[in-house]
Specification:
Length: about 325
């Protein structure tokens, strides 16, 4: 964890900023409390942002209401807090204020579009794609555009944009899936929940994201995409059992979905569950060779004393990837 023994407010402010970025929200609250002792005004916003992420939006909004003057970041955070209470018209007003003052605020633009879609307003996916942004924001807008195309019944086009979102999660690709899989499996009504869930996910508001993905699954329990996204959300909060359940659910209709196979293998590896890791790494490797998976599978076998099996994987690794 990020900790630093210092009494210098500028250093403490920087530490709190790093703690927020690292997802160490409770530590950020503690650092903000130290800043309050020095009368640093930013402490209130830091605490509010941290509370927003640990599923205390009411407390966050109370703190944000105390901040004067209200800058764009405070306005944006207030909109996010209202979203968690499903006060979408009010939240839209706050995001519109942000965008009016900064029309290149990509996160506010994508959030506003997702809310508008959620409450039934007509959305042109080209408006999503026109939002400026790189890296994670670009992958998010590709995913959101795919959802809107799917709602319009344009599944092959949706598939293309979801492919463009590769890397949205670690090892996420559509490898092992085709547009036909979604044509037969997707219920367009689930898409609005996926969009809102992904906006929350991008902000690391995990409880709110899980709620939206659960709503999508209520509509379509066998959804490949909704089960995968819900599993990812559960994995991030450390709920292995639910993550495994929904990754496996995503494979029922698409047994060769590589992203879920690898995610399950990685869960087994992370939790030292040799049976889980070997089952899904082996399945993934039967479809496509990959040096990291071969090495990890060897390590799993070695950890449970299966030395011959481990040796076979290490020899495979040397043979397939001599350099």
């Amino acid at each position: 964890s990020l900790e630093l023994k210092t009494n210098q407010p500028p250093v403490l402010e920087k530490l709190a900023e790093l703690q927020l970025k690292a997802g160490q929200f409770k530590s950020a609250i503690e650092t903000a409390a130290l800043l309050e002792n020095y009368g640093v005004k930013s402490a209130t916003v830091i605490k509010a942002e941290a509370y927003m992420h640990i599923d205390e939006p009411g407390r966050a909004l109370e703190l944000l209401a105390q901040v004067t003057p209200r800058n764009l970041h405070v306005t944006y955070l207030t909109g996010l807090g209202l979203m968690q209470f499903e006060k979408y018209p009010e939240a839209l007003q706050y995001f519109s204020i942000v965008i009016k003052q900064n029309n290149r605020h990509a996160a506010a633009q994508l959030t506003r579009i997702s809310i508008q879609n959620y409450i039934g307003q007509s959305i042109d996916p080209k408006d999503i794609l026109a939002v400026s942004g790189s890296g994670a924001l670009d992958r998010l807008k590709q995913f959101l555009a795919g959802c809107v195309y799917a709602q319009q019944g344009q599944i092959p086009t949706a598939y293309q944009y979801w492919e463009n979102a590769s890397g949205l999660f670690p090892a996420f690709t559509l490898e092992g899936l085709s547009a036909d899989d979604f044509q037969n499996n997707l219920n367009v009504e689930e898409c609005k929940y996926l969009m809102l869930g992904m906006v929350f996910n991008a902000q690391r508001m995990d409880t709110a994201a899980i709620k939206q993905f659960q709503r999508a699954i209520q509509i379509n329990p066998n959804s490949i995409l909704s089960n995968y996204l819900l599993a990812q959300a559960y994995q991030r909060v450390g709920n292995k059992e639910m993550a495994v359940r929904h990754f496996e659910a995503s494979l029922l209709e698409a047994p060769n979905f590589m992203a879920s196979l690898i995610a399950l293998g990685n869960l087994g590896f992370a939790y030292q569950d040799a049976d889980l890791a070997s089952k899904y790494y082996s399945k993934a490797l039967s479809l496509k060779s990959h040096p990291t998976l071969i090495y990890r599978l060897g390590s799993v076998y070695e950890s449970v004393g299966e030395m011959k099996m481990a040796e076979a994987q290490y020899r495979r690794l040397i043979g397939d990837y001599p350099k």
